[in-house]
Amino acid sequence: MWRKVTSTSFSSLKSSLFFTRLHLQQASKHNAASASAVSRFATIAPLQEKDGRCPFITFVLGGPGSGKGTQCIKIVETFGFKHLSAGDLLRREMVSNSEYGSMILNTIKEGRIVPSEVTVKLILKEMESSDNHKFLIDGFPRSEENRIAFEKISGAEPDVVLFFDCPEDEMVKRVLSRNQGRIDDNIDTIKKRLKVFEALNLPVIDYYAKKGKVHRINAVGTVDEIFEQVKPVFKACEQKAFNRS
Ligand SMILES: Nc1ncnc2c1ncn2[C@@H]1O[C@H](COP(=O)(O)OP(=O)(O)O)[C@@H](O)[C@H]1O
Ligand SMILES: Nc1ccn([C@@H]2O[C@H](COP(=O)(O)OP(=O)(O)O)[C@@H](O)[C@H]2O)c(=O)n1
Ligand SMILES: [Mg+2]
């Protein structure tokens, strides 16, 4: 039912900046968290077909400020995806009188990851209420716990994983000049977020790379130059995957 898309750039992924600093010391901690996630989540909300078409899921990953949101806007314009930013969904939940409001605020301020139950529920609700069957899920999964929760609860896996690979100094520069009034766009939080990215998100990228799903994008350059690398990923699967039944 779920088609796999093979990566064209795994060798460059392996040699990328981040992958030279593998997170072995984190491995046992992650394994414990993953094991607990496996036993905690059950498939309770399998994703439904839309107009007889299976959902086509892209996870958009990369460190803070690597340009995920910026590129998602261009992918939506060109390829007609529904864009779901996990961070935006959490920020919306935070200001909506939700019981989770203060927990989300504190977690974002500290640059930590909101428990998967909350985030997966928000994402699946948006997916289910959309008429579109092509989804860009931006900033998710950010941990193995996120990944396992999504896969178990939805019964689905991503077709494509985009990884925007950006040096830390460039990410810091971009976040500090983002100017969107975000509580986490300050030097203390960004430092914490970079550590969390390396410890928790790189293992997810590594996991999908081993499954041949990751397309590494060099996130340095102009927005248009970066989009030139993104386009072929979607062009390659436009016909066969986007219209599948
Ligand atoms: N290629 C680029 N070069 C320079 N600045 C960029 C580029 N792409 C995005 N930006 C800017 O960097 C900041 C972070 O981009 P954003 O798309 O919000 O990243 P992310 O969603 O990965 O955190 C924004 O202010 C954005 O306008
Ligand atoms: N899957 C996710 C995504 C975001 N978040 C929280 O939301 C914050 C902002 O995420 P974001 O995706 O909007 O951030 P950027 O990468 O766009 O800068 C993260 O640092 C986390 O605190 C989360 O807990 N779980
Ligand atoms: Mg973003």
TrEMBL record:
GO terms for biological process: 'de novo' pyrimidine nucleobase biosynthetic process; pyrimidine nucleotide biosynthetic process. One of its GO terms (molecular function) is ATP binding. One of its GO terms (cellular component) is nucleus. Binds 1 Mg(2+) ion per monomer. CMP binds at N146. Its EC number is 2.7.4.14. PROSITE patterns: ADENYLATE_KINASE. HAMAP family: Adenylate_kinase_Adk, Adenylate_kinase_UMP_CMP_kin. Monomer. Consists of three domains, a large central CORE domain and two small peripheral domains, NMPbind and LID, which undergo movements during catalysis. The LID domain closes over the site of phosphoryl transfer upon ATP binding. Assembling and dissambling the active center during each catalytic cycle provides an effective means to prevent ATP hydrolysis. This is UMP-CMP kinase. It comes from Arachis hypogaea (Peanut).
